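U., I forgot to send this yesterday:
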Amino acid sequence: MFIEKLIRSFEKFKVPYTLVGGYAVALHGLMRSTVDVDLLTRLDEQNLARAEQALLALGLQSRVPVTASEVARFRKEYIERRNLIAWSFVNPKNPMEMVDILLTHDLRDVSVIHKKMQDFKISIISIDDLIMMKKEAGRPQDLEDIRGLRALKK
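Result:
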């Protein structure tokens, strides 16, 4: 399973992360289908370089020609001037293997929980912080996810 390979690669390269997006919604208990894996990590240059190494080790390639160093140095400019809110990676041999590192939030600014899946642990953003991020995004699917996540909290 791709998600397991991804988590194990992040562990190997010592990349702190938390899942956000559709996978996080599903792991919190809502029926949700998604293909890409959205995650947060620490947005400093050293950590982004380790994340890049972990993704390259899985055969994924950046969709845009930027390096971890450039993402760290120009992140705010990329967001404001180019609307680049995620650093996206895809496996050219299997386009279903996609990862987006969100550039709008740093891992240090959110709460996470851990769940056990088979023989590994997975880090997932808290429901409250996931709701906050989905409010900011405001897309129709995000608004639907918010309704479902709020219902889970009751």
